[in-house]
Amino acid sequence: MNEIRDILIGIDFGKSLSQLCYYDRKVKEPASLPVKLDTSQYEFPTCVCRAAGKEVWYFGIEAVYHAKEQGGILVEDLYDICNDTKAVQVGGEEMNPWELMGIFLNQILKALGVVEPVKHTKCLVITVQRLTGVMVEHLRKACEEVGLARDRYILQDYSESFYYYAMCQKAEYWSRGVGWYAFDKDKVSFRRLSMTGNTKPVLVTLEKPVSKELTEDPQMRDREFSRFIQDTLGRGMYSSILITGKGFHQEWASNSITALCRHQRKVFYGNNLFAKGACYTAKEKLEDRELRRYLYLSDALVKYNIGMDMMIMGSPAYYSIIQAGKNWYECRSEFDLILDDTNQLTFHISHMQSSERQKVSMSLPGLVPRPNRTTRLRVCLECQTETTCKITVKDMGFGEMYPSSKKIWTETIQV
């Protein structure tokens, strides 16, 4: 690879196969890293292997080889493992999912061929098919395990990687809308990326998928997909079409390709779109910021604001805690406050497109009685889904005079 510092990395963490790419600053686009030199093989198995009798680990193709030929202990289904809370037995040793994921990430980063890859990584973006609360927790711990601080990695799902891949192409490739055909063996689904141009910022949405089952016979498959193309694209205006997944091949899709390319539509096809989209995310968010005028309304987007009325520097003010317009797994805020003649906390919630506020109060049962303004609390708000937020409150005491009671209160609010 060409980069040795300030590296921007995209990892497609797939259920069975994963990919790695980096942003090549010379050609100004993401470059996929082959698993074998001088080949176009970019995918590798999502697994790790511990060498027999040694604390040595391998990943991907090497992991499969060492398990088969050298008697190593293979850990497959890493994706499903990271979507569960259960520990895993590896050669008689119990290991947490995030520990195994940390090993997987560490081995992937070594494959870049850079001395101290973590030190020279500016941003790592991990993209998965769908992010759950459990997976987010494991991925975060894994990133921290390899030495990446919270501001040096980003988590996102495939739909957001698709958005960044599409929007980081030339403007003429997305200005009239983008169509996305996602194959999964004999099933294909279609979604349209469209924009509402009369708002600030411009709202970008990915429509709900429409799906169709295809037969295996090549000629019938081509005819069925061609009809599906006509039904989904219709008379709509599209600048480009993107095709992902296993199940599409140019050998059988002669009529389908003709239908896709009508009206001078640009067609992108490849199995590295999500990894490259993750790489584009890092470049856009940390450096370019050319999409500031656009807001992608993903399924994971938080559409509400949470704040509190406080006295700040002696003056009444509204303190913003959670801001709308971010994905739920990016929304976390922690701060300290001092109670003033109250034993409960009151939060104000408002929708991103409304000025109306809803009040939600959180009581603190068992709060130790102290003189007014001598109780300091540490408050943490962290979104668990796009519509739920967990509040954790800790009693921090007030210096040596009023030590902490170590009490902790938690509450989950549904918006």
Search tags:
415 residues; alpha+beta; Nucleotidyltransferase, domain 5; Substrate Binding Domain Of DNAk, Chain A, domain 1; seven-stranded mixed beta sheet; 8 helices; 26 strands; 22% helix
Tell me what you see in this structure.
The chain is built from 8 helices and 26 strands. It is α+β, with helices and mostly antiparallel strands and 415 residues long. The strands form 6 sheets. Strands 12, 13, 14, 15, 16, 17 and 18 form a 7-stranded mixed β-sheet that branches. Strands 1, 2, 3, 4, 10 and 11 form a 6-stranded mixed β-sheet that branches. Strands 20-19-22-23 form a 4-stranded antiparallel β-sheet, with no helix packed on it. A hairpin with a 5-residue loop joins strand 13 and strand 14. The radius of gyration is 25 Å and the shape is globular.
Please specify the SSE layout and strand pairing.
Blueprint: E1 7-12, E2 17-24, E3 29-32, E4 44-45, E5 48-50, E6 57-59, H1 60-69, E7 73-75, H2 78-81, E8 88-90, E9 93-95, H3 97-110, E10 121-128, H4 133-146, E11 153-157, H5 158-167, E12 178-184, E13 187-196, E14 202-206, E15 210-213, H6 218-233, E16 240-246, H7 254-260, E17 266-269, H8 273-288, E18 294-296, E19 304-312, E20 315-322, E21 332-338, E22 344-351, E23 358-363, E24 376-383, E25 388-397, E26 408-414
Parallel strand pairs: 1-10, 10-11, 12-16, 14-18, 16-17
Antiparallel strand pairs: 1-2, 2-3, 2-4, 5-6, 5-7, 8-9, 12-13, 13-14, 13-15, 19-20, 19-22, 21-24, 22-23, 24-25, 25-26
Helix pairs in contact: 3-4, 5-8, 6-7
